[in-house]
């Protein structure tokens, strides 16, 4: 019998909620994860935030509702990515105090609360470092007389996005031959392919472990 799970999806602005931007990607990731792990989705809670400063349960009525549903059915809450819960480690720590298990599709089914805290803390530290480096770079550029903002900033952002996308595409291209090889060796499901890549010591583009959803993403890039 399939285990029950409640899914929680979140977008940060009203315009994203109306357009569906990001929602379908989250929904698809959760559908693939729950199918692969034999979960039955019994309820979906969708949060559409209207501004910043929403890392408080009182400003997340749908997250509060998801917690109530999960407690009532004694099951877990699943999200596509950890940042759909929060980007703040203290907020995530507070959620853990509700003693409702959280599952993150991107991280796989075996990540316990302690590891979730570590991921959140690392992400928070990474954002702080990126912010500090950005401020230092902008200060140095301004000292050289470079005009900041406007078209130049837009071009820089576009180039940064392209670099990230190209890096992911190259990694996918390198991994695809290995995926074909393990398929020929008998791996048929996404979960089996992920296990085979992990056994060979091959990491994801971010240096992490493979899961069914990350295999699916690589295949989609192909």
Give me the secondary-structure category: alpha/beta
Q: Quaternary arrangement of the chains shown? A: single chain
User: In this structure, how is the largest beta sheet organized?
Assistant: 4 strands, parallel
What global shape is seen? flat
Q: Enumerate how many helices there are, as a single number.
A: 8
- Percent strand: 5-15%
Low-confidence stretches: none
**Straight-line distance between termini:** 34 Å
**Overall radius of gyration:** 20 Å
Pattern of helices and strands: EHHEHEHEHHHH
Number of strands: 4
- As laid out across the biggest beta sheet, the strand order is 2-1-3-4
Mean pLDDT: 77
Helix content: 55-70%
Structure, described:
- The chain has 8 helices and 4 strands; from the N terminus they run E-H-H-E-H-E-H-E-H-H-H-H.
- The chain is flat and about 65 Å long.
- It has helices at 14-19, 23-36, 61-73, 89-96, 113-143, 150-184, 190-199, 212-221; strands spanning 3-11, 39-48, 76-79, 102-104.
- A 4-stranded parallel β-sheet has the order 2-1-3-4, with helices on both faces.
- Helix content is 57%, strand content 12%.
- With 222 residues, it is an alpha/beta fold.
Keywords:
alpha/beta; 8 helices; 4 strands; flat
List the helices and strands and how they pair.
Blueprint: E1 3-11, H1 14-19, H2 23-36, E2 39-48, H3 61-73, E3 76-79, H4 89-96, E4 102-104, H5 113-143, H6 150-184, H7 190-199, H8 212-221
Parallel strand pairs: 1-2, 1-3, 3-4
Helix pairs in contact: 4-5, 7-8
